Amino acid sequence: MMQVLSIQSRATTKESPLSGKLIVLTGPSGVGKGTLMRSLLQRHPELYYSVSATTRAPRPGEIDGKNYYFISRSKFEQLLAQGEFLESAEFAGNYYGTPREAVLNQVQSGQLVVLEIELEGARQVRTSFPEALSIFILPPSFEELENRIRGRGQDSEEAIARRLQRAKEEIQAADEFDLQIVNDDFETALNAIEAALFG
Ligand code: ADP
Ligand code: 5GP
């Protein structure tokens, strides 16, 4: 797989992020990854955003094939068994996975591909593709993270509690990643991601 992807060495990647073709954006739920991704894609339509598959129910306004591929648990398990996912994880009671073929095709054709995924999946990608540039988005504080999850108003109390519990564990892993960016002021965080991707 490494030969297929032919991404440059880690040392080169750190000096020149653009030589890496795969970008992993991770961080706790509610930190603002999705919002940052949307703005990033608006500014840089040439980026390829990998649409994940999930067994989670769509939130109001979410569109199948755009936000996620919303699939059943049995379908997910079938795809997983067939090796169709580049990485996958269970998060807050649902499965999430990155379609392997689409991402590899895009990387091979020279695209800059961005994955927005949770910690376990990000670790899997780091193991499979150590040359990928990995970015961890941190909240300014745990209280602010809770405010954002609540403010989004799209999760049940139970889901919020699970996400916050998981967030505590996730934040401790921040320094495993190449870059840590605090999403306090939105524009500042967005500019920092841009700088990492485009120098
Ligand atoms: P994630 O994709 O990481 O779960 P979202 O992108 O859904 O997070 O953001 C969670 C909430 O936080 C949203 O309501 C979003 O508008 C808000 N948000 C994102 N970034 C900021 C920021 N820098 N300051 C304040 N609120 C933010
Ligand atoms: P949400 O349910 O809020 O859309 O996503 C929950 C978490 O799953 C977020 O941290 C999001 O980044 C992550 N996620 C989304 N797609 C994938 C994926 O394909 N793989 C993994 N591992 N995590 C994902």
Rough shape?
globular
Q: Number of DSSP helices?
A: 9
Q: Poorly predicted ranges (pLDDT <50, ≥5 residues)?
A: 1-20
The kinds of small molecule bound in this structure are: adenosine-5'-diphosphate, guanosine-5'-monophosphate
Strand order of the largest sheet: 2-7-1-8-9
Helix content: 40-55%
Q: Please report the total strand number as a whole number.
A: 9
List SSEs in N-to-C order: HHEHEEEHEEHEHEHHEH
Query: Any idea what the radius of gyration is?
Result: 16 Å
- Could you give the distance between the termini? 27 Å
Instruction: Characterize the quaternary organization of these chains.
Output: single chain
Instruction: Tell me the β content.
Output: 15-25%
Give the overall pLDDT as a whole number: 89
Protein name: Guanylate kinase
Enzyme class: transferase
Organism: Anabaena subtropica FACHB-260
EC number: 2.7.4.8
Description:
With 199 residues, this protein is of the alpha/beta class. The chain is built from 9 helices and 9 strands. It has helices spanning 2-5, 10-15, 33-43, 73-81, 100-108, 119-128, 142-152, 157-171, 186-198; strands at residues 22-26, 48-49, 52-54, 68-70, 85-91, 94-99, 113-116, 133-138, 179-182. The strands form 2 sheets. The protein has a 5-stranded parallel beta sheet with strand order 2-7-1-8-9, sandwiched between helices. It has a 4-stranded mixed beta sheet with strand order 4-3-6-5. The chain is globular, with a radius of gyration of 16 Å. The two termini are 27 Å apart. It binds adenosine-5'-diphosphate and guanosine-5'-monophosphate.
